[in-house]
Amino acid sequence: MTALRIIVLHSNRFSGRLPSEFGHGLPNLEEIYLWNNQFSGQFPSSISNCSKLTIVELSTNSFGPIPNSLGNLMHLERLNREDNLFTGESSVPELCFLSALTSCKALTRLVLAGNPLNGTLPTSIGNFSAIRYFNAESCNIKGNIPRELGQLSNLTTFILQNNELIGSVPVTIGRLQKLQVLYLHGNKLNGSLPNDIFQMSSLGELILSRNNLSGALPACLGDFSSLRSLQLDSNNFISTIPSTLWNLQDVLDLNLSSNSLSGHLRLSMGNLNVVTQVDLSSNHLSGSIPVSIGGLQNLMNLSLGQNIFEGPIPESFGNLISLEALDLAIITCLEQFPSP
Description:
Layout: E1 6-8, E2 15-17, E3 31-33, E4 38-41, E5 55-57, E6 62-63, E7 78-80, H1 96-101, E8 109-111, E9 133-135, E10 142-143, E11 157-159, E12 164-165, E13 181-183, E14 190-191, E15 205-207, E16 212-215, E17 229-231, E18 236-237, E19 253-255, E20 262-264, E21 277-279, E22 284-287, E23 301-303, E24 308-309, E25 325-327
Parallel strand pairs: 1-3, 2-4, 3-5, 4-6, 5-7, 7-8, 8-9, 9-11, 10-12, 11-13, 13-15, 14-16, 15-17, 16-18, 17-19, 19-21, 20-22, 21-23, 22-24, 23-25
């Protein structure tokens, strides 16, 4: 089968191990699609003989270790190992296979999500010169985010949610001018938000929920004109909400709940023209609820509960024509809800 270019076996019930000689005799193989089967065992190291490989899709199987020989595939562009049984080497904390893969200079998409990697990110992660999409969510990754991450100048999506990362968000992340999606929620990150993070002019989604981040929300949050989703909930932020935040006129989803934010909400909150979700619950916000909220015609979910607002519910709430869910629980001294 020396002329074979593409193998497509996905979405079946194939099981067992691939033969160790799998990669022999396939010099023209360019693409492999084995996802959604029941294959197991180590992926054959002989695959390195398929020097023309560009795509390897192995998700939703029970494959074990990734052979370091994959690093010899100079034309590899996409590698997907999502939802398998791959683990890191028990003898060293670093995920050494990542260092091997940095030799794949054409690699633009790497998906490792849902594997029990149980290791730390090596500093060599900064050598993925072409990488655009990196997803290693729910992999039991530990330790710090290497500052070398800032060297990935082509990166557009970086997903490390639901791991065991510690330490602060590296300031070098601000160098990633092409980054559009940053998901770091569900970790143990601490410290304050570095101002450098707000230099990423292309960022559309910033999700840092469920960490141990603290300090003040920086005023430069409002400079993120490209931002569509901002989720900083379930942290330890203690400041007032900066007035500049209400300059995010294109934001769709805003979640600052479960922090210790204080102060009053401003009338300029009504500048969030297209917002559909706002959750500011479980903070220490006070004063009256701004009447300008009633002008948010696209707002579907509004949660202000478990704060210390007082005074009447604005009659303008009757203009919230898209509203589907409203949470004002445990707010003091609220008068009757406005008539429709």
